[in-house]
């Protein structure tokens, strides 16, 4: 069961947003967006932010982010056709890891539809181990701009 705090999330609780227009193929046989599509969207909003605001260039970066944990609390369905806002923030920023939170909001509605968590550990591309210095400075600086104070978790 989702915590009461997650159910009260609003767009203003997040510092970056990305729009997504649902597709017919996003629906499952129950006529709502399939659970796997939410994870696709989480990956997309996180990587869009990393590329646009953290100087990450996935094909050539010496560091890569490995997903070590993810989960989603589904609060209400989204169905085709809809426009959703994927809202992103960082809840925890460590030396080589980052914990993101993603809120899914349907355009024109205030209640959050789903809240996901996604954890990346940034490692050296070749060794697949965290570097001694942790994540690159540009990466950490970009992520720190969407970091939320622990009292607002």
UniProtKB/TrEMBL annotation:
Superkingdom of origin: Eukaryota
The UniProt record lists the keyword Hydrolase = yes
Instruction: Supply one GO molecular-function term.
Output: fatty acyl-CoA hydrolase activity
User: Which key words are in the record?
Assistant: Hydrolase, Isomerase
Q: Name one Pfam family in it.
A: 4HBT_2
Q: Does the keyword Magnesium apply?
A: no
Q: What's this protein's family per the entry?
A: Belongs to the 4-hydroxybenzoyl-CoA thioesterase family.
What name does this protein carry?
Thioesterase/thiol ester dehydrase-isomerase
Say which species the protein is native to: Massarina eburnea CBS 473.64
